[in-house]
Structures
1.
Amino acid sequence: MREPTFLILTALADGPRHGYGIVQEVRVLSGGRTSLLTGTLYTALDRLTAEGLIEPDREEEVDGRVRRYYRLRTEGLAALTDETARLRQLTTAAEARLRAVRPEPA
């Protein structure tokens, strides 16, 4: 799973968000390293919807513009859980190797 996909799913894990809310949450989650462009975000949202990982939640009108909210589906939660476990396993392996090369100070 690519990092932007992981971050979008993570942004939706605690509840529905609209596009700009997802962009803001991804920026926070990534410590400012990832800034999604609008085109990139909506392409990803369309793909994740087609894959059955997320779905539209609701729409609301704000200042004459429609905001569409998205939510994580059960399949999306499972994919996020699996990817989190995979990343944890890789991180644990990397940390073990780093400790072998650079022992922690006493």
Note: The beta strands are 17-18, 54-62, 65-72.
2.
Amino acid sequence: MGAQAFIAALTAAGAEMPAGLTTHRGTRDARRFAVYRNNVHVGLVGALEKAFPVVRQLVGDAFFQIMARAYVAAEKPASPVMLEYGDGFADFVAGFAPAEGLPYLADVARLEVALTQAYHAAESDALDRAGLAGLDPSRLDATTLALHPAVRLVRSAYPVGTIWSHHQQQPVRPVERWDGEAVLVTRPDAELHSTILPPCDVPFVAALWAGASPAEAAWVAVDADRRFAFGEALIALIDLGAVTGFRDRETQDA
């Protein structure tokens, strides 16, 4: 019996017990295998419950169980590291027909994935304001910012940052403005932060995230909103612990 056959039987509900699998007495015990398979499913559902507490609050325990079990049936762990299980849950939620009445749900899941990834990202020293002296103003178009490994950017047509933050306390406050939001996830001093970016800063941060130089990102932002202030936006990123240094683009491309 191969490992893949065993995994397939273990993770597929209703699959027959694989050939060659016996107890220590040499007998087949389909009931015991079914119990073991159910425990695996329960464990995976439990991992999703821990990873997506706000999604769970939004839909309720019963609905989340149904959705999580459907995901477990469709998506098997690709890694023995359970912290990585559920990275594709947001895309699954987006296509889960019973949840189509909650169009913001998938983006809330994406934010929770980003928070989990940020929490477990590599360590790195963040740049402080004094470190800005290393940025040559004459080379703004030839330099890129090195972002902290924990930085994540989640953009949504819905107020996902507000939804998430309101669910961090009880009773949950209603969302008053249903405007789209972009949330920057950072981890300064080993503490997670989710910051709702000012709308005029979003194109700037998104361009930096895509690898643009500060000058290129600033032009993108100004073109989108004339109120954009380059210095304020850059200082804000520094204060959030999002930047670790500067890279010479010519060196990168060499």
Note: The chain has a mean pLDDT of 86.
3.
Amino acid sequence: MNKKLESVYEEYNRYIYHLCLKLTRNNTEAEDLMQEVWVKVVRYEDSVAEVEHIKAWLTTITMNTFRDRYRKKVRRSKYMINQPETLDVPILDLVPNNDISTEEKIEKEVVTKLVQEKMGQLDAIYQKTLWYFYIDQYSLAEISSLMKVSIGTVKSRLFRAKARLKEMLMADVSVVEAVLPA
């Protein structure tokens, strides 16, 4: 290890450890993460001399390494479940089913229908604004130019429309019973 890398390690070792600890909230995982970070730093030791802001560079490496580990863990846990040494279940049972259930489909359809009915009772300007934003997925700037109003006006219309829609939905007892669990 060259002198520059040693001085970087001496100066930022505690900082990186505390950042890792803050991210993982676990001493063992923080140490593992920190070790991965320093392995990456050593791997790119030629770049250390060219970096202007070492602390920011190390922080970025730490954050990216943490994100990579988290994504890998989520991916792995999605496809694997804790099983005993011998599997008594077919392997296909371990593959996740990402399809929504029939009950969830029906519930979604019912809620969608209820919201659309209430949306139909809103003023046309609020209907249009909600439609553009949530259904057509237009940005605020696009809605602004379509409706020929300022972005601030679009924001306030969205706010008012959502508030009015919520008020109408909560006032309807049948909607509240259908959507909120008892």
Note: The longest helix spans residues 54-79.
4.
Amino acid sequence: MYIAMNRFKVTPGSEAAFEHLWTTRDTHLKEVPGFVEFHLLKGPQKEDHVLYSSHTVWKDYTSFEGWTKSEAFRAAHRNAGGDNRVLYLGHPEFEGFEVIQTVK
């Protein structure tokens, strides 16, 4: 299993707009082979931002890599950036993890 995460530092007062942007968009994830699940996570509030993370679980790294090269990926990210960048500080920070252990 592989977990892909993007961290976003959302400016205070922009949380509702950021959440609306994410929860109403078509992710196109369900049509990609190897996709397991997606979570939008809200973390702690700091002085200058609220931490959010998009958390996507994949069957394996190869499936994630296929997603990043797919038409579905391009469609899901077609409107990324632009005016939406005012909602968060800097660029999203990507982190990818190979799952070593799962306990259920």
Note: The chain has three helices and four strands.
